[in-house]
Amino acid sequence: MWSPIIMTSSLQGEASIIGRNLARLAFDILGNYGDVNNSNVNVFREVLNINEEAISLLTSTIRNSTSLCLLFGGETTVTVNGKGRGGRNQEMVLAFSLETEKLSEQFNGDGEISFLSGGTDGIDGPTDAAGALTYFICREGQVQLQTDDARKEGLDPEKFLKDNDSYNYFSQLSEGKYLLKPGHTGTNVMDIQMVYIHKY
Q1: Model pTM score
Q2: What's the chain's Rg over C-alpha atoms?
Q3: What range(s) does the MOFRL domain occupy (predicted)?
């Protein structure tokens, strides 16, 4: 059973930086599961705008649940330096995915992390997608990463991120199955991020 926790409703900042920090937070929690006192959760309070109440709830919940769903809301930005196509949610997920690849090299344990970021209006930037999702799985030393799938398909995730081309990256990766495409929703209550953490 998943235990949901609202971490903040005012997430803001550069999408790629937020994505990387969300990945670090997820790995910190998974790596110190059941002993939040040894984690660095408080380090992320300022950059992710997490309030004290959310930290307390996380600390108590993690003692009784092996499956967490951390909920974030807000609106981030993208400084466009490249010539690609994408939106802040897709860029955030790509940055999260790349940071996951880096952090997985030092991870010891079993568990999984999934991350989804999407615009509640159904549109992310000048694209027909609302956002995207990525994942990390480690079981008995066997690691599964979305970036590994991308490289096997001849895609260079870093190059796509540098060119602000997250939409084309996710469109090409696994025939676009990681893109969220609900269409126009007729509502707009900012963006939503969901970080799923499960300890085996």
Answers
A1: 0.95
A2: 16
A3: 68-191
